């Protein structure tokens, strides 16, 4: 049982489920969930499901692994999952200068001076 062979089978399984390969870094599966139903009796199938879950998570999807009900065969399926709304604290509000906090903000850095009495760290 090699990981490379399991990866090939996992990619093939995802293609059979309708997912085409994409460039690295694309989060095109947000809002989708991969449901893997595995009984754990076949270690090779479990390894393929693990690799498929890793690929699916990298592309932004959610993964759920469950045990099969009585009489159900191990399989995988993709379902649409509700996308949670991301909350942004300052949505619509911008500081006076983009990328910098306002001057009266506690996050504003003090300006550097050429004053010799200003303590300097030695590094």
Keywords:
123 residues, hypothetical protein PF0899 fold, three-stranded mixed sheet, 2 helices
What do you see in this structure?
Strand 1 (32-37), helix 2 (43-58) and strand 2 form a beta-alpha-beta unit. It contains two helices and three strands. 24% of the residues lie in helices and 14% in strands. It has helices spanning 3-16, 43-58, and strands at residues 32-37, 62-66, 75-80.
List the helices and strands and how they pair.
Layout: H1 3-16, E1 32-37, H2 43-58, E2 62-66, E3 75-80
Parallel strand pairs: 1-2
Antiparallel strand pairs: 1-3
Low-confidence parts: none
Largest sheet: 3 strands, mixed
The whole-number mean of residue pLDDT values reads: 79
Distance from N terminus to C terminus (CA atoms, Å) equals 53 Å
Number of distinct beta strands: 3
- Helix coverage percent: 10-25%
The CATH architecture term of the domain at 3-80 is: 2-Layer Sandwich
Q: Which class of the domain at 3-80 in CATH terms? A: Alpha Beta
Radius of gyration: 25 Å
The strands making up the biggest β-sheet line up spatially as 2-1-3
Strand content: 5-15%
Coarse morphology: elongated
Q: Assign the structural class, choosing from mainly alpha, mainly beta, alpha/beta, alpha+beta, or little secondary structure.
A: alpha+beta
Strand and helix order: HEHEE
The name of the CATH topology of the domain at 3-80 is hypothetical protein PF0899 fold
User: Number of helical runs?
Assistant: 2
